[in-house]
């Protein structure tokens, strides 16, 4: 259930999210009649895992992938993982999430909860709540969203708020899409360079499909003055099943 959200997740550029498609699978004839289920999987290789503009893979290549189980009622559950620069004793980020997507008033809404985990590490897992609204203006597809982590010991006893806007615009019949976005973060993760100012991040990219896979190339930058937040170009190759 992606609705162009930054959430599902996070390392995927908007172009890649637009290219993902669900593959309905019948769990059993009786079960499908009562509750149709769509199961989708995705894998990706990225030149840098940038989360809200900041590199979590030490500015090197990361391998990523996940699964979603979507129910016709609008509910979904899923998991997503990426290789990362070590957090404690862990070199894997494993996210577990559940939510509900629905349409109302011409908008596509997505609400849910996500837990960031780091297998092998302790005292670093934390919970985040999220919501977004997607809408279309002509050919422009837009999403406004937020993610809120309430106060938790594992994020220093603080809370965290991230708000963002993302957009995608297809370039006629070329098969290319322009993508872009901007985000603002304040709280536990809002000042990674320690200068006292909250973080902004932004991106601009292009996405396309070739050789049976989805591609995107994005320029990513932040307002932060440290190596992991410096401007860079991120190349992604992804595939959904």
UniProtKB/TrEMBL annotation:
Keywords: Signal. Pfam families: Gcw_chp (PF09694). It comes from the Bacteria. InterPro entries: CHP02001. Residues 1-28 form the signal peptide. The keyword Signal applies. This is TIGR02001 family outer membrane protein. It comes from Glycocaulis albus.
